[in-house]
Amino acid sequence: MPDKVRIVVDAMGGDYAPAEPVRGAIEALQKSDRIEVIFTGEEERIRQVLADLSYPKDRVRIVPATQIIETAEPPVKAIQSKKDSSLVKGLQLVHKGEADAFVSSGSTGAVLVGGQAIVKKIRGVMRAPLAPLIPTNKGASLLIDCGASVDARAAHLVQFAVIGSIYMKEVQGIRNPRVGLVNIGAEEEKGNALCKEAFPLLQACREINFVGNVEARDIPKGAADVYVTEAFVGNVILKLYEGVGSVLLSTVKQAIMSSPKSKIGGLLIKSELKKALADFDPHAHGGAPLLGLRGLVVKTHGSSRALEFCNTLLECVQFHDQDVNGKIQAYLSKTEES
Amino acid sequence: MPDKVRIVVDAMGGDYAPAEPVRGAIEALQKSDRIEVIFTGEEERIRQVLADLSYPKDRVRIVPATQIIETAEPPVKAIQSKKDSSLVKGLQLVHKGEADAFVSSGSTGAVLVGGQAIVKKIRGVMRAPLAPLIPTNKGASLLIDCGASVDARAAHLVQFAVIGSIYMKEVQGIRNPRVGLVNIGAEEEKGNALCKEAFPLLQACREINFVGNVEARDIPKGAADVYVTEAFVGNVILKLYEGVGSVLLSTVKQAIMSSPKSKIGGLLIKSELKKALADFDPHAHGGAPLLGLRGLVVKTHGSSRALEFCNTLLECVQFHDQDVNGKIQAYLSKTEES
Question: Which residues of chain B from 133 to 172 reach within 8 Å of chain A, CB to CB?
Fold first, then answer.
């Protein structure tokens, strides 16, 4: 019998805590008998949500934590001072080997800082990249890195490319994922100093399927499965995606609501539109993994509902079963030797 | 009587040359009796387009040029080797003081390189930024820099902020334009090394109305009138804007065309939708100026039609009348003294 996957769920993180993380985790439990859930947070409030749900009691436990790290708190200070927070306690369980993965909708900064400081990086990993999936015309692609470590060097980008490729292959099931370097022109000699240095290194890397530079206009068209970039640019891409999408869709909605005639038109296209735009819903995918750590840390959206938690937990099983960290480690020891 | 504004139009640049640049320029002539147009390019082909138009002959002349710089050509080499191109000849007219402005839909790289090499920078300008207008919920904002000079330093960003503010005030009529620094968090201490260094400098600059950091998700919401950023990030923003917009709108269109019912719905919302999205049309605004040069150089979209050329020429008059370059110069000599 395959082993269990022990997943800590931060029950206090996100806009709808504790109800949605708890419900989502229980849904995942029901879908996969491989999962064991450990909730961290205020025991009484977690029990209240659980009271309404039916679930296998032997696969759920609570590790009480009395503090909550708020989104506005400076991450480093919060991690250091709030030792009894649901976030710090959860990460410690992974660090001590009592859990395989940690999932949280809490403060992105605290998850990033805490993940690196408490769970710690795999030996040889230079930086732990945050790698969300972004919607494209051809399915979801991985944007790596959107994390807190800005001003990356070329060697970091190569590691991101390899780690991102392993993730897309093993967890998302993309065979031979295409890796693109986000750049401001398609030709090899284009770009800033970082891109010019990274391009030949990516080209020489045998572990990846490098397809060259990708201009930002081609990102939503699915020009690659793994978009490699430095964290500052990655963060700009991620947030602009969200911003342009929401402004455009609200403009379309306003246009539909602006006259009686267009309101009727809106009713007639509603179901088709909803279906077509579903793929562009960031919540349709699981959370963003912070890769390269000794264990798995996943950041879900602050506004995550049960569905996103459930999908994320199922992806944690996949991550564990495909031994993603083992494969990252194998690559690193190979490059260390050479 | 106010003086004439002499504008060179590259008749051979862009997807619809020479017809659309020539028609657009003639439209501008008819709207403003201040404009004189000089077309550069193949005389015979320009004359063919002019033959169908009525216009004041004394305000139009042609400077023949036999070569054309193609979009795919490496810019530096093209500028050096194609001395008889419509682009090089046009820029030389500005350099020699025979024209006030140059407008082209040709190769962006060649316009950027040629503008700096031939027209040359105003003394004290460290870099000449390319500054397109981008659509937002609250009207158009300036994105500065999207040019070819990547890896800018903090002092460059401060100049961009001042130059961009002068442009938005004098040419676009925005009183006290809000300047935002594109960053990955709202707090002062956020960002990469460049942003951390630039933030206090922008804050200390008295010539601008600095509103602090702006996250990429707030760019389409019109969080500032002038978005200051380094060229690599600016280019990513500009192109991702275009990419996300076109993929989303084509998704909406596909949804509308997917069933007979939704097609009828589409007809009912068509006029309202068109109106609402008009502001998001990049061609609704004039071209992107390359600022800080001794003269004005404007890059219009490769796919520009007559309307965009016409608008661009009218903006050139505004640029000239408001003495934008004089104001940039005044700022520079003030900072030189201090």
Answer: 136-137, 150-151
